[in-house]
Specification:
Elements: E1 3-9, E2 12-16, E3 21-24, E4 37-43, H1 51-64, E5 65-76, H2 78-87, H3 92-95, H4 101-110, H5 137-147, E6 150-157, E7 160-166, H6 185-198, E8 206-210, H7 216-225, E9 228-233, H8 236-245, E10 251-255, E11 268-274, H9 283-293, E12 294-305, H10 326-336, E13 339-346, E14 354-356, E15 362-368
Parallel strand pairs: 1-4, 4-5, 8-9, 8-11, 9-10, 11-12
Antiparallel strand pairs: 1-2, 2-3, 5-7, 6-7, 12-15, 13-14, 13-15
Helix pairs in contact: 1-5, 2-4, 6-7, 9-10
Length: 370
């Protein structure tokens, strides 16, 4: 088993393995191949990081783990030290006593602050033992969830919080969360747009949500339209997550390859598939499948990055195969047989609302099967 430990000693970060240790400039920089570590222990490092550094570090640690890989973290419990601070006696005698509540509370909230006296000869600002952030049970859980970890267990033991979590699926560009407030707004806005377009469907309508990921959009479609919605994704762990966290009586989830889609022809009133075709090498075939499963008069709503505004870069977009101009997207849809193609835009790549037009970072298309 490939086990690693991240520690902070004398304000230096170290990656320790069974027979070696490596000094790290930053714990948020990649220190191993992705999906290569089975067990990662992180000991009291998070308090030395800013909030943004901690977010980035957690993503790096997530990517380094194998599927079913575990992370174990320990951090000081800020709630404990706040209470200690409030109960402490603040006078010179207690400030000089390393065992007093005042000194313990100060160190627990802001670090030991060794080598912090500029009057001393050994004053080294770069080695100051200063905490930049604090964690209680709720904040640590949120940080792990935001990175994509699941099966989170947290144990509070007085001054210390110990947590463990498991990587259950590859993240890639996938949103991984159990709550809507942790899903990127641009992703939610696409599904909100689809809900508005499909709200007039009859109550017995059938909707296919292909490449549904963890299923948050599938559930949105089911709740807002009242239709029966089938969420399909190629990642088994994503489907398991969807069934656990984003399902109701009108949702069904299944793991399938879009090339081998087991959905009856002429059975769906609508197909929704966001940010999908740029990931596959069978774009025309995929649109042909959408056309086949739709009923006559059925609607397709899809989206993809706009090549004219957000040009394809294989380094920046490592999970994409290409981006599409609006003309290329429309031509693909028409070739598959779709008609009445209308384009919409998201201008902001992170929080963009969907508006009429075709000059956004992302293009959304709505088309009809005659």
């Amino acid at each position: 088993m490939n086990k690693c430990q991240l520690v902070c000693k004398d304000q230096q970060y170290w990656l320790k393995q069974a027979s070696s240790q490596l000094s790290l400039a930053n714990v948020w920089d990649r220190f191993s191949e992705n999906n290569s570590i089975e067990h990662l222990t992180v000991s009291n490092i998070l308090p030395y990081l800013t909030s943004m550094e901690a977010d980035l570090a957690m993503l790096t640690w997530f990517d380094s783990l194998t599927i079913k890989g575990e992370i174990h973290l320990s951090v000081p419990n800020i709630d404990y030290f706040i209470q200690l601070w409030q109960s402490a006696t603040w006078d010179n005698q207690n400030l000089l006593n390393a065992d007093s509540n005042a000194r313990k509370a100060f160190a627990g909230l802001w670090g030991g602050q060794h080598n912090c006296n500029p009057r001393n000869d050994n004053y080294q600002p770069e080695l100051q033992d200063i905490y930049k952030s604090g964690y209680n049970q709720a904040r640590l859980k949120l940080l792990l969830e935001r990175a994509g970890f699941c099966e989170i267990q947290i144990h509070v033991e007085g001054a210390q919080i110990n947590a463990s979590a498991i990587k259950t699926m590859f993240r890639g560009e996938r949103q991984i969360s159990t709550h809507y407030d942790q899903i990127r707004p641009d992703h939610l806005n696409r599904y909100e747009f689809a809900c508005k377009q499909l709200v007039t469907l009859p109550s017995n309508a059938q909707i296919l949500d292909l490449a549904c990921g963890i299923g948050y959009g599938t559930l949105m479609l089911a709740k807002h339209t009242g239709a029966k919605v089938t969420g399909v994704d190629i990642e088994q762990a994503a489907i398991a997550h969807a069934k656990q966290h984003f399902s109701n009586e009108n949702t069904t989830f299944c793991c399938q390859d879009a090339k081998l889609l087991d959905i009856a022809a002429n059975s769906q009133d609508a197909v929704v598939s966001f940010e999908t075709i740029e990931h596959v090498d069978f774009d025309q075939q995929l649109l042909d499948v959408f056309f086949e499963v739709l009923k006559p008069g059925g609607q397709l709503i899809c989206s993809t990055p706009n090549q004219d505004v957000m040009p394809f870069d294989p380094v920046k977009f490592e999970f994409h195969l290409k981006h599409y101009t609006n003309k290329e997207l429309v031509d693909l849809l028409l070739t598959s047989g779709f008609r009445d193609v209308k384009l919409y835009a998201q201008h902001d790549p992170v929080s963009g609302r969907v508006v009429a037009g075709s000059d956004g970072c992302f293009t959304l298309a709505k088309a009809v099967k005659p």
